[in-house]
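tool_call predict_complex ligand=calcium ion
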Amino acid sequence: MSLIMVIEDEESIGILLKYNLEKEGYKVEIIDNGLKAVSEVERLKPSVIILDWMLPEISGVEICKLIRSKPDIKSIPIIMLTAKSQEEDKIKGLESGADDYVTKPFSIPELMARVKTNLRRAPIFEEKERFIIFKDISIDLVEKKVKRGENYIHLSPTEFRLLKMLAKEPGKVFSREVLLKSVWGENIFVESRTVDVHIRRLRSSLNKFGADYIRTVRAGGYSIDDKEDLENND
Ligand code: CA
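tool_result ok
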């Protein structure tokens, strides 16, 4: 699932874009303050940015230039959104580093098509899927953060890797040996009991905010799924 960031101070346009982008299956983040925009882009690393030209604090052109000056985010495609339709403004927008340019009032299908086109050029950190979603659990592979509903869940790096592995293939049972090899690595010697300890910690962190989706398969291993008829004792 790709993240689209909308930098726009007008609330009604933000809501309209969020609604339509989410309908297309994207994750959407609205930033309504131009001064926060660049640091938010650095933090969240979206796949595509929709940037309004007219912002009260700082212009879209300035934001665009700032993004283009930062090596880790400079290749994120930017679609500039503006009421300005004059040719020289358009040139100024493109010169500042925007990849695309849409004039307000815009048509939703056209903007969606532009998003799709620009997504193909999204940088490498977005070529793979960024989020793994299982039910209300959302795993951000770039930021390495886990959210359950609206709550952030703090996990150790090991617990994070365990959850990622289980959530990638819901319903599949992973043996302790397989989990050990993939999560801890081939050459590290740890007992299979270690897996149980970390699964227990993972469970207790995750389950603070909802039902237990981690399933213990006796003598088999672990999986994540929402089958309610199965025993679920650690
Ligand atoms: Ca505006």
